[in-house]
Amino acid sequence: MKKTLYKFIFFKILGWKITGHMDASIQKSVLMILPHTSMFDFFVGMFARGIIGLEMHYVAKKEFFRFPLGRWFRWMGGAPLDRTGNKNKVDEIVDIFKKKHVFRMAIAPEGTRSKVDTLKTGFYYIALKAQVPIIPVAFDYGNREVRLGKAFFPTGNIDEDLKQLVLHFKGAVGKHPEKTFDVEKFLAS
């Protein structure tokens, strides 16, 4: 029932579509979400997750998981992350991957909703250390499309791997186009 409602709202009312496919047999992965220019991206992701019908997750600071919203954040796929002290965030998230049977973690490598010229690389090193694929997912507001890419296993050559991954996002425009990550500029550098 909930999936039908999500489809009606997302496809019919909002006019979005989902292209590509997520392989259900891949139970652990890093979902590379780009571009990320608006808080509305959370709702695009929520609808896509509900329609695709697979568990998908995210990490957030542990303070979000306290009363009264803690249960809701966990129900929405959240995993708490302790950001205090000098703990290595990559290793901490890799530990979460090790503890979970299913963990498809969505992350925006821009690290902010503001305009950036470079991507943060934590998502890449998480996938490399956890030995899981990266699945590129474009939130393209220009075409009202969530575009799912193919699973990509990092090789350890981050420069070449990032060039391959960002190709998936060519032409994708964020809700705020002026904040959209410039794929062409990145590839030319």
From TrEMBL:
<dbReference type="Pfam" id="PF01553">
    <property type="entry name" value="Acyltransferase"/>
</dbReference>
<dbReference type="InterPro" id="IPR002123">
    <property type="entry name" value="Plipid/glycerol_acylTrfase"/>
</dbReference>
<dbReference type="GO" id="GO:0003841">
    <property type="term" value="F:1-acylglycerol-3-phosphate O-acyltransferase activity"/>
</dbReference>
<keyword id="KW-0012">Acyltransferase</keyword>
<keyword id="KW-0808">Transferase</keyword>
<dbReference type="GO" id="GO:0006654">
    <property type="term" value="P:phosphatidic acid biosynthetic process"/>
</dbReference>
<protein>
    <submittedName>
        <fullName>1-acyl-sn-glycerol-3-phosphate acyltransferase</fullName>
    </submittedName>
</protein>
<comment type="pathway">
    <text>Lipid metabolism.</text>
</comment>
<feature type="domain" description="Phospholipid/glycerol acyltransferase">
    <location>
        <begin position="30"/>
        <end position="142"/>
    </location>
</feature>
